[in-house]
Write a structure and sequence with these properties.
single chain, mainly alpha, 2 domains, 76% helix
C-alpha cells in the first residue's frame, strides 16, 4: 500500500529484506548529489565567464590568468577585512544594547567566496570570446531546474515504469521514503522561533481556510454524492490535510477498507505527482518568489514527501517556508480526527436516534501523530539558544539534510508506478481531484496577494 512505509517491517528482523533496496537508494542519491554539485559549479562558473566578457572593454587585452586570479583573491580579502570590522562593531553594539534592542541589531552579511575559473576555462573564454559548452550546459540545467531532486524523481519513475523494480528491492525503496523526515528535523537548526511564529501565523490561517475547508467540502460533497463513508473520510483527510499520514490517522474512525486506501491514496499520489512536476514551472511562470512558492506548495501539495521535493526543486528559501506551513498543517491531524469522529460517527448516530460507538480519539491521535514534528521543534529551540554557529547551521540545514532528502527522493521516484496512479477513479476521485485543484488555485492567489515579506524566513 502507498504511503510512508505502510506494509514494511521496520524491525531488525525486517532489515535484511529492506537492505538491498536501501542500498540502491543510497547509491542513486549519491550519484544525484554528484550531478547536483557539478551543475551548480558549472552554473557559477558560467556567471563568472559572463562577467569577464561583459566587463571587457573594446581594444583592451584580457588579464593573464595569474593576474586575473590574484585580482579576484585580493578583492575578496578586502571584503573579508571589511566584514570583520563590521562584525566586531556589531558585537560591541550587542554587548552594550539592552536585550530588546539587541534582537533588532542585524549581523553583517559574510562575503561569498568568489568563483574563479580554472585556467583552461579562463583561457578558452578570453581566446574564443565565448563561454565553454560545459558551463553553458550546467547553467541550462539550473534554469530548467533539473537538480538532484528532478533527476531522482524522473529517473526513479523511468526505472519503475520501464524495466520495473525487482521484488527484492521493493521493501527497501518504500523504507527509504520516510528518511525525508529526519531531514526535516535537521532543517530545524536553520530556524529561530521568530521565523516559525511569523510564517506559522499565516500558515495557521491558510490551514484553517484552505486545508480544513477542503476536508469539510469533500465530506459534504461525498455524502451528497453517496460515496461510501470509509472512502470519503480517507479522501477528505488526505486531500484536505496532509496526504497519507492524515488518511492513516482517520482510517480506524471511518472503518476504511483496503479498497478505500487504494482509491484515496491513488488520488492523493496522482494529484501530488502532477503538482510535483508542474508547480515549479507554474511558479516560475507566475513570477513567484521562493518564499511565496514555498507557502503555496506547503498549502496545496498533499503529501509531505512530494511537498518537500517540489519546494526543494524550486530553491532552499522555498523549502524553509514550505516546511513551516507543512509543520502547521500536519499538526492539524488531531483536529481532522475529531472532525471525522463528529461527521462520520456522531452525526449519523444522532440522526439515526441511537448512541454513537465510543472511539478513543486521544489514542488514535497519539498512535498516528508524526513524531518528527517534535524533533523539529527541539532543533529550533537549540538554535534559539545559540547552540549552532552560522557555519554549523549551513552544514546541517543546507548540506546534511540533502543526504536524507536524496535517499528519500530516490525511494519516492522508484515508487511512482503508473499502475498505482490508475487505481484512482470514480466519483470519489473526481471530488478529491477537483477539490485539491480548487484549493491549489485559491491558495496561489492568496499567497501572491500576501507577498514575499510575510513568508520570508529571515
Amino acid at each position: 500500500m502507498a504511503g510512508g512505509g505502510i506494509g514494511v517491517d521496520y524491525s531488525l528482523k525486517g532489515l535484511p529484506g529492506m537492505l538491498p533496496g536501501l542500498l540502491v537508494c543510497f547509491l542513486l542519491g549519491w550519484l544525484a548529489l554528484q550531478w547536483d554539485a557539478s551543475i551548480h559549479q558549472w552554473s557559477r562558473e558560467h556567471k563568472a565567464a559572463e562577467s569577464i566578457l561583459k566587463d571587457a572593454k573594446p581594444g583592451e587585452a584580457f588579464l593573464p590568468y595569474d593576474a586575473y586570479k590574484k585580482e579576484k583573491q585580493e578583492r575578496f580579502a578586502g571584503k573579508q577585512a571589511e566584514y570583520q570590522a563590521k562584525l566586531e562593531a556589531h558585537q560591541a553594539a550587542l554587548a552594550q544594547a539592552a536585550p530588546a534592542e539587541a534582537k533588532k541589531l542585524k549581523a553583517p552579511e559574510k562575503p561569498k567566496k568568489p568563483t574563479i575559473l580554472k585556467q583552461a576555462d579562463y583561457e578558452r573564454v578570453v581566446q574564443d570570446k565565448a563561454i565553454p559548452g560545459k558551463l553553458s550546459f550546467g547553467n541550462l540545467m539550473i534554469e530548467l531546474q533539473l537538480t538532484y531532486v528532478a533527476v531522482l524523481l524522473l529517473g526513479g519513475m523511468l526505472i519503475r515504469n520501464t524495466v520495473g523494480l525487482p521484488d527484492v528491492l521493493k521493501a527497501g525503496t518504500v523504507a527509504a521514503r520516510p528518511l525525508i523526515k529526519p531531514g526535516i528535523v535537521i532543517l530545524g537548526a536553520y530556524y529561530l522561533w521568530s521565523n516559525v511564529l511569523k510564517v506559522g501565523v499565516f500558515g495557521l490561517v491558510m490551514v484553517l481556510l484552505f486545508v480544513l475547508g477542503t476536508a469539510v467540502l469533500i465530506s459534504y460533497w461525498a455524502r451528497k454524492s453517496k460515496v461510501d463513508d470509509g472512502l470519503a473520510g480517507l479522501m477528505s483527510a488526505g486531500v484536505g490535510v496532509c496526504g497519507v499520514s492524515a488518511a492513516v490517522a482517520v482510517a480506524p474512525v471511518v472503518n476504511a477498507r483496503p479498497r478505500d486506501f487504494f482509491y484515496a491514496i491513488g488520488t492523493i499520489l496522482l494529484f501530488g505527482t502532477v503538482g510535483l512536476f508542474t508547480f515549479p514551472y507554474i511558479g516560475q511562470a507566475l513570477g513567484m518568489s521562493q518564499p511565496v512558492f514555498g507557502a503555496w506548495v506547503g498549502t496545496a501539495v498533499l503529501n509531505t514527501a512530494q511537498l518537500v521535493a517540489a519546494a526543494s526543486w524550486y530553491g532552499h528559501e522555498s523549502l524553509l517556508t514550505a516546511n513551516i506551513i507543512n509543520i502547521v498543517r500536519v499538526s492539524f491531524i488531531p483536529l481532522i480526527v475529531l472532525w471525522a469522529i463528529l461527521f462520520y460517527v456522531v452525526k449519523p448516530a444522532a440522526a439515526a436516534g441511537g448512541s454513537s460507538e465510543k472511539i478513543n480519539a486521544w489514542q488514535v491521535v497519539k498512535d498516528k501523530f508524526p513524531i518528527f514534528i517534535l524533533g523539529f521543534f527541539v532543533m529550533v529551540t537549540l538554535n534559539e539558544f545559540g547552540v549552532f554557529t552560522p557555519e554549523q547551521r549551513d552544514v546541517l540545514g543546507k548540506e546534511l539534510l540533502k543526504v536524507f532528502f536524496a535517499v528519500g527522493f530516490a525511494g519516492v521516484g522508484l515508487n511512482i508506478a503508473f499502475d498505482d496512479l490508475r487505481k484512482a477513479g470514480g466519483t470519489a476521485f473526481m471530488i478529491g481531484f477537483i477539490s485539491a485543484t480548487l484549493k491549489a488555485v485559491l491558495a496561489a492567489a492568496a499567497v501572491m496577494a500576501i507577498g514575499t515579506a510575510f513568508f520570508s524566513v529571515h
